[in-house]
C-alpha cells in the first residue's frame, strides 16, 4: 500500500519512481515485557530501559525465558515511548553485544519489508518530525504510542537504491561522527585544563597560607523550603523556587526554577540575595554533592529549596573566592571524606559537615584579586568551550540535513561519495 507524498515528515518532494509507505506496512512493532520487581535477579539477561538507550550502562537483570519478540540483539531498531521535551524517541540502533531483554517502555521494530539500514536512516530523518508532530501540545513528560509510530510515512525507493544510499550514509555519518567525537575530546581537554589550573592554584595557596575550617569564616548554613510548585518558568515579577540544577553545574542558573503557585505566599526568609553561596545537599553521584555557585538573581524573585544549602560568610570574606575554592579538586577531596551514603543511594552532605570543610586560609585582602584572576581564566576557557560547542552543533545539523537529503532522493549518494 502507498500513500501520497503530501505531508511526509521530510518536508520535501520525492522522486517520481519512489513510493511512501506507512511503517506499519513495512515492519512489526512490539512492546517490551512488563517486568515486575519479582522478575529481577542479581545476574542473568540485562533488561534495556530508556536510560540505557541514552547511554547508561546500569542494567537490571532477569532470568526469565521470554518470547523472541522481547529479546534484543545488536543491530535491532528501538524506539522509546516517553521522555522529556526535546529528547529523542529514536530510532536507536542497539549496539551492545549479547542478548538483552526489552522492558515495556520501549518498542522494537521487527520483520522489515525493506533494507534494514534504509529503514534506520529514513526513520532517523523523521526524528524531528516525530518529536514535533507526535508530541505537540504535551506538557512535562511526553509520550508516543505504537499507533503513532506505525503511521510514520517511510519513503521507499527500489531496493538497489536503498542499499546504495544506505552505504553512502554509513560512510558519511561515520566521518562526521569522528569529527563530533574530536570536538567532544576538545571539550574534555578544556574542562581538564580548568580543573588542573584551579587545583594548582589551590594547592599553592594551601602551601603558602595553610588551612582554616569553614566554620571559622561562615555565619550561617541553612536549608530552604520546597512547596509543590508549577514546573514552568516564572515571569520576572513572579516568585519561583530554585531547582538543584540551578547550582549543580557550578555556575548559577537563575532560570532553573519552578514557579511558586499564586495561592502560596513566598516565605521571605528564603529569598535568594546576590552573593549568596548555594550548595547542593545530595545526589546519587558524589560528583554532584556539595557543588557550589554564587547567586546572581538578575532581579528575579527566587527562593531557596530544601535540596540546597545557603552559606553566608563573614563580611570580609569573598563569596566568589570561597565558591571557587569549594569547587577545586583539593578542597573537594577534603569534602568527599564527609559525604554520607554510598554510590547507588542518595549521597548527602550535612550542614555540620560543611562547617568541617577546610579552605585555604588566604587573607581577605588577597581573595578578591585571586578570585578575579581565576574567573578571567575560567571565562577564557568557557569562551573556547562555547566555540567548540557551536562547531559540534553545526556538525550535528549537517549530519541531520545530509540524512534528510539522502533519504528523499535530493542527490545521488553514489556520486556524492566519489
From TrEMBL:
InterPro entries cross-referenced by the UniProt entry: Restrct_endonuc_typeI_TRD, Restrct_endonuc_typeI_TRD_sf, Type-I_RE_S_subunit
Entry EC no(s): 3.1.21.-
Annotated ranges, domain Type I restriction modification DNA specificity: 15-174
Keywords: DNA-binding, Endonuclease, Hydrolase, Nuclease, Restriction system
GO MF term (any one): hydrolase activity
Database matches in CDD domains: RMtype1_S_FclI-TRD1-CR1_like (cd17254)
One Pfam short name: Methylase_S
Subunit structure: The methyltransferase is composed of M and S polypeptides.
PANTHER family found in the cross-reference section: TYPE I RESTRICTION ENZYME ECOKI SPECIFICITY SUBUNIT (PTHR43140:SF1), TYPE-1 RESTRICTION ENZYME ECOKI SPECIFICITY PROTEIN (PTHR43140)
Family per similarity comment: Belongs to the type-I restriction system S methylase family.
Protein name: Restriction endonuclease subunit S
Amino acid at each position: 500500500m502507498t500513500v501520497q507524498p503530501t505531508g511526509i515528515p521530510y518536508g520535501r518532494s520525492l522522486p517520481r519512481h519512489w513510493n511512501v509507505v506507512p511503517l506499519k506496512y513495512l515492519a512489526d512493532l512490539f512492546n517490551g515485557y512488563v517486568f515486575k520487581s519479582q522478575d529481577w535477579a542479581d545476574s542473568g539477561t540485562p533488561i534495556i530501559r530508556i536510560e540505557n538507550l541514552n547511554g547508561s550502562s546500569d542494567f537490571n537483570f532477569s532470568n526469565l525465558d521470554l518470547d523472541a519478540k522481547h529479546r534484543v540483539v545488536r543491530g535491532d531498531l528501538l524506539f522509546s515511548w516517553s521522555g522529556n521535551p526535546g529528547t529523542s524517541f529514536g530510532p536507536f540502533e542497539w549496539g551492545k553485544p549479547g542478548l538483552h531483554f526489552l522492558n515495556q517502555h520501549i518498542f522494537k521494530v521487527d520483520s522489515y519489508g525493506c533494507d534494514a539500514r534504509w529503514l534506520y536512516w529514513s526513520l532517523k530523518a523523521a526524528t524531528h518530525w516525530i518529536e514535533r508532530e507526535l508530541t505537540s501540545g504535551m506538557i512535562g513528560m511526553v509520550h508516543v504510542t505504537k499507533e503513532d509510530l506505525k503511521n510514520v510515512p517511510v519513503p521507499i525507493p527500489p531496493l538497489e537504491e536503498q542499499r546504495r544510499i544506505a552505504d553512502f550514509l554509513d560512510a558519511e555519518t561515520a566521518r562526521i561522527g569522528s569529527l563530533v567525537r574530536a570536538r567532544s575530546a576538545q571539550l574534555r581537554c578544556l574542562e581538564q585544563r580548568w580543573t588542573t589550573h584551579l587545583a594548582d592554584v589551590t594547592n599553592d595557596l594551601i602551601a603558602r597560607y595553610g588551612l582554616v575550617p569553614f566554620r571559622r569564616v561562615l555565619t550561617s548554613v541553612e536549608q530552604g523550603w520546597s512547596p509543590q510548585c508549577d514546573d514552568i518558568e516564572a515571569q520576572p515579577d513572579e516568585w519561583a523556587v530554585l531547582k538543584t540544577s540551578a547550582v549543580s553545574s557550578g555556575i548559577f542558573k537563575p532560570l532553573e526554577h519552578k514557579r511558586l503557585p499564586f495561592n502560596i505566599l513566598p516565605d521571605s526568609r528564603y529569598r535568594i540575595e546576590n552573593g549568596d553561596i548555594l550548595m547542593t545537599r545530595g545526589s546519587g553521584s558524589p560528583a554532584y554533592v556539595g557543588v557550589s555557585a554564587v547567586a546572581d538573581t538578575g532581579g528575579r524573585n527566587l527562593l531557596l529549596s530544601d535540596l540546597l544549602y545557603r552559606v553566608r560568610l563573614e563580611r570580609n570574606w569573598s563569596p566568589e573566592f570561597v565558591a571557587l575554592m569549594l569547587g577545586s579538586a583539593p578542597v573537594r577531596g577534603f569534602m568527599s571524606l564527609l559525604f554520607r551514603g554510598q554510590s547507588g543511594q542518595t549521597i548527602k552532605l550535612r550542614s555540620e559537615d560543611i562547617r568541617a570543610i577546610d579552605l585555604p586560609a588566604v587573607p581577605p585582602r588577597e581573595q578578591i584579586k585571586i578570585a578575579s584572576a581565576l574567573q578571567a581564566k575560567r571565562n577564557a576557557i568557557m569562551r573556547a568551550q562555547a566555540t567548540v560547542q557551536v562547531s559540534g552543533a553545526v556538525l550535528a545539523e549537517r549530519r541531520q540535513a545530509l540524512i534528510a537529503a539522502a533519504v528523499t532522493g535530493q542527490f545521488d549518494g553514489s556520486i556524492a561519495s566519489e
